[in-house]
Structures are given as C-alpha cells and as structure tokens.
Amino acid sequence: MKAYRLTFLFIFILLLFSVLISCSRQKEGEVSTDLIHIPVSADNKKQQEDMPKFEFERTEHDFGTLKQGEKVSFTYKFKNAGKANLIISTVVPSCGCTVAQFTKTPVKPGESGFITISLNTDNKKGLVRKHVAVQANTYPAETKLWFTADVELP
Fold first, then answer.
1. In what order do the strands lie in the sheet containing 54-56?
2. What was the pLDDT predicted at 18?
3. 154 residues of the chain, pLDDT tens digit each
4. DSSP state of 77
5. What's this model's pTM, rounded to 2 decimal places?
6. Which of 22, 33, 102, 125 has its CA 20 to 30 A from that of 3?
7. Rounded Cα gap, residues 52 and 85, in angstroms
8. What is the C-alpha separation between 128 and 124, in angstroms, rounded?
9. DSSP assignment of the chain, as one string?
10. What's the count of helices (H) and strands (E) in the chain, helices before strands?
C-alpha cells in the first residue's frame, strides 16, 4: 500500500511540474497559438464572413536589381477587414535567406498590422523568387506573400 502511495505521489508531482513548465514558456505579450481556432467549413459562408480577413496593400514585391551580399527589407502592410480579431500565429519563410517579423498582438477589425521580410543575398545570383507563408486565424488559414530580386555578382 505504501508503494502505491509513493507511486501516485511521484506521478502527481511529475504532472504538476510539467504543467508549470509548459505554462511558463509563453513570453509576456505573446499571443498563445492555442487561441487560434478556425471553425469554418467550406460550405458555411456565414462563418467565413464573421472571421478576420487580411486586406494587404500588396502581396508581391520586387526588390529590383541587387548586388550579391546586399541585405534588404520590405514591409507588407495589411488591414483586418474582417469582423473578429486577426491573430498571426507564425510567418514561415521559404528559405534560410529570409527572416520575417510581424505584428504579434491581435489586430482588431479595421486596424492595421505589418509583416516585414529581410532578404540576405549572400550566395545568391540571378533571379530570386521566394515567399513567406503567413499562418493566421483567417480563411484560408495560410496566405503567401511573394518577393523577387535580380541578384548580380559584385
């Protein structure tokens, strides 16, 4: 009976410890991706209308001609044209030459946000066409932002 109690106590402490660790990983000011829930089905138009919606000024950008090794940035600006808070969970670049920063707080209906991409042209040459995949609580759940550059040797 004593071994049963010790085993139970050990499992309880282990579970409590794991819950405390997982709760402390979220940084202050960050939005938990647990908040992102997309309950929409393709046949429910009313639900789609009530969701947050990206309205980008543009979804493509051309950096023009760049010298190899140049580092450039561009900011895609958007407005939430939907009826609920828009929450970006992540922005995934299509290659290691790109880094993205984005609005990490919920964007209320009618308000604006940003996604800034930085391109490093080291080891690149010729036409470069890449994208970042923006994952959010919108319908569809993923939006791609494209950019191009013509990279010349120095």
1. 54-56, 71-80, 112-120, 98-102
2. 60
3. 566 666 666 676 666 556 555 554 445 555 555 455 555 555 566 667 789 999 999 999 999 999 999 999 999 999 999 999 999 999 999 999 999 999 999 999 999 999 999 999 999 999 999 999 999 999 999 999 999 999 999 8
4. E
5. 0.71
6. 22
7. 6
8. 8
9. -HHHHHHHHHHHHHHHHHHHHHHHTSPTTPPPGGG------TT-HHHHHHS--EEES-SEEEEEEEETT-EEEEEEEEEE-SSS-B-EEEEEESSTTEEEEE--S-B-TT-EEEEEEEEE-TT--EEEEEEEEEEESSSSSEEEEEEEEEEE--
10. 2, 8
Token pair 């090794």: residue: 69
Hunting for tokens 């958007």 — which residue is that?
78
